[in-house]
User: Which sequence fits this backbone?
């Protein structure tokens, strides 16, 4: 009988990447969790002994608005990115190979320049004296004293800009495998164009949709450069606080406690989604 | 009268290719009709125009007097069984069949009874909760048929319905499709490249070639009296001869002089003038082989030849016979006791003969 599960020798092929993940992800992650239970020393390092102080500090109600803002901004980013990426992926999967190559190139082209430089570019674009503000004012779309920079809107805008390719690429991969004759079948059975899209295409690419949502949401949760550079003083996210603990307060254990909490908050829902997907597949196969 | 579905001078081009070229045909209510032709003959484009996926460049499509030409697919009382079935993989069998009724926002109770009734019709009730991926090819096709028929379409379009099935299943589904058609009485329009399928499924067949309809007729008429050599070769096998009309006869017969063979008498199949160059056709199974010259007479065409090759097919045997420059295919049923019929060996000298009614002019070359 031919088994589809890989043989023991095939497992060896995963060793290099597995080793990489263990050395550079699993071990540091464990170190972060361990450090969360250590006291800080005066020189910005980690002191001796164990303490619950850093964990207790997480229960401070002052965190709530920051957590709420982080989750809300990330959720909004995810929703807008998916809404923009779905029609884009649909279109990319339907156009001819030439145009498809060009569109794919356009999606990945931002990665060719440095992330920080692109954020700086947004900073000058949105600046009160910047070209975008001037253009919008001259078109009378915004009042003359409009501030496009240093507020939550700017943070959301730049987060969407940064994350959009991470939503488009997995969705495109799913859409490319989608059987578009199913849309003909839906139209034939009485569904209009919009209902064909929502009842057949969207469920058809749901795995890509889940990957894109997880990708964008998780990456958004950890952002700290964007709120710091284009946001205002009241637009801090959890990431900003972690960066502040590390670079300004020089308190590694407190930063670790925050980072560990954020990591768990991300990993637990991901495991739930993975388990749900596996359960769903089993159910379909039974 | 065939005026239920009317395809009224419909044309469609893709770039410089005329995929469908001024097609005029009409189908009566409850008929099983086939569009038959080789790939690229325009039959699929015609089907997609009936379903509403393509818009004709010119012409109209009328159904029960209503002009469908400008309607999008979702507004046509027409449903399609797609070639690859196009079942929704994220829905189970029951939900797939319910899709159309849900889209037209029927009451819940009506959806339930409609779907259950269809499941019974296609005998899939016990598979209602399975996903399409868990079904066999034949079961998937029955789901596709049920999913289309549950909407009570006025016309059911079936695009190569048997192409994806293996031989045994195909023969079984042929009978099943005929049974379903009989039971629901809906007008069925098949698109197929397989003449056998078209012959056993349909009341009438339109044979298409290069965007045009060559002939519309009942299966027997297409086989027995093809009007063009394309139809003659596409449906069954045929021997073709080119010759000159030498003698017109009353009642539609013409004697044709064929260089190196003889002068058989055949059906003229339309107006023929003297000395006109003609093409005529004889089916291999219409040719008898005898060792002696058959008794000569007005009603027998007989020519001598030599058996060049023999191919045995079980139920019948095929002979290739050389007569001068000509090669003639003859096909004999394996019946040892039919009087006068022989089973000659390779190299044997034989007489080929056929009745004038079995030969016919199929194309008037250089003429109309």
Assistant:
């Amino acid at each position: 009988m031919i088994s589809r599960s890989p043989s023991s020798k095939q497992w060896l092929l995963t060793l290099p990447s597995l080793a990489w993940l263990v050395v550079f992800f699993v071990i540091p992650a464990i170190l972060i969790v361990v450090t969360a239970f250590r006291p800080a020393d005066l020189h910005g390092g980690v002191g001796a002994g164990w303490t619950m102080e850093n964990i207790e500090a997480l229960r401070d109600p002052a965190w709530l608005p920051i957590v709420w803002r982080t989750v809300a901004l990330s959720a909004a980013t995810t929703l807008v990115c998916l809404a923009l990426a779905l029609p884009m992926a649909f279109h990319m999967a339907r156009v001819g190979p030439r145009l498809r190559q060009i569109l794919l190139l356009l999606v990945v082209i931002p990665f060719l320049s440095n992330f920080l430089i692109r954020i700086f570019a947004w900073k000058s674009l949105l600046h009160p004296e910047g070209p975008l503000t001037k253009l919008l004012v001259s078109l009378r779309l915004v009042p003359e004293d409009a501030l496009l920079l240093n507020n939550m809107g700017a943070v959301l805008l730049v987060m969407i800009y940064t994350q959009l390719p991470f939503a488009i690429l997995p969705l495109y991969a799913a859409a490319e495998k989608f059987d578009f004759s199913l849309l003909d079948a839906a139209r034939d059975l009485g569904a209009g164009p919009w209902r064909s899209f929502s009842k057949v295409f969207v469920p058809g690419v749901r795995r890509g949709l889940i990957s894109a949502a997880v990708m964008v949401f998780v990456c958004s949760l950890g952002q700290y450069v964007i709120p710091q550079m284009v946001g205002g003083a009241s637009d801090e996210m959890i990431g900003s606080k972690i960066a502040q603990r590390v670079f300004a307060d020089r308190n590694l254990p407190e930063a670790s406690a925050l980072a560990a909490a954020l990591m768990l908050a991300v990993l637990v829902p991901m495991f739930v989604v993975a388990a749900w997907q596996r359960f769903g597949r089993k159910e379909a196969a039974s | 009268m065939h005026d239920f579905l009317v395809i009224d001078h419909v044309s469609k081009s893709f770039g410089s290719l005329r995929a469908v070229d001024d097609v005029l045909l009409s189908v009566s209510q409850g008929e099983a009709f086939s569009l038959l032709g080789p790939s690229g003959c325009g039959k699929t484009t015609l089907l997609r125009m009936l379903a509403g996926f393509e818009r004709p460049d010119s012409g109209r499509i009328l159904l029960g007097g209503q002009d469908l030409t400008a309607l999008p697919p979702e507004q046509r009382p027409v449903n399609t069984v797609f070639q690859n079935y196009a079942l929704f993989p994220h829905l189970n069998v029951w939900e797939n069949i319910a899709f159309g009724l849900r889209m037209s926002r029927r009451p819940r109770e009506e959806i339930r009874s409609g779907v259950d009734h269809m499941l019974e019709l296609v005998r899939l009730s016990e598979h209602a909760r399975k996903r399409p991926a868990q079904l066999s090819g034949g079961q998937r096709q029955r789901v596709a048929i049920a999913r289309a028929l549950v909407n009570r379409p006025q016309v059911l379009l079936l695009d190569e319905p048997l192409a994806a099935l293996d031989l045994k299943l195909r023969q079984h589904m042929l009978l099943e499709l005929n049974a379903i058609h009989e039971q629901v009485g809906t007008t069925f329009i098949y698109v197929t490249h397989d003449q056998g399928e078209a012959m056993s499924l349909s009341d009438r067949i339109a044979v298409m070639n290069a965007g045009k309809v060559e002939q519309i007729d009942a299966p027997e008429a297409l086989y027995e009296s093809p009007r063009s050599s394309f139809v003659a070769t596409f449906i069954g096998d045929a021997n073709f001869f080119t010759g000159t009309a030498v003698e017109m006869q009353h009642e539609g017969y013409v004697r044709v002089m064929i260089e190196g063979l003889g002068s058989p008498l055949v059906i003229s199949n339309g107006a023929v003038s003297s000395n006109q160059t003609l093409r005529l056709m004889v089916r291999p199974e219409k040719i008898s082989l005898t060792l002696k010259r058959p008794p000569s007479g007005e009603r027998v065409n007989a020519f001598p030849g030599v058996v060049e090759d023999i191919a045995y097919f079980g139920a019948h045997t095929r002979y290739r016979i050389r007569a001068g420059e000509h090669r003639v295919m003859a096909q004999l049923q394996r019946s040892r006791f039919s009087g006068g019929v022989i089973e000659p060996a390779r190299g044997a000298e034989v007489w080929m003969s056929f009745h004038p009614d079995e030969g016919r002019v199929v194309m008037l070359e250089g003429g109309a």
Summary: Residues 21-277 of chain A form a domain with the MetI-like fold fold (CATH 1.10.3720.10). The longest helix of chain A spans residues 252-285. Chain A touches chain B at residues 179, 181-182, 184-192, 195, 199-200, 203-204, 206, 284-285 (CB under 8 Å).
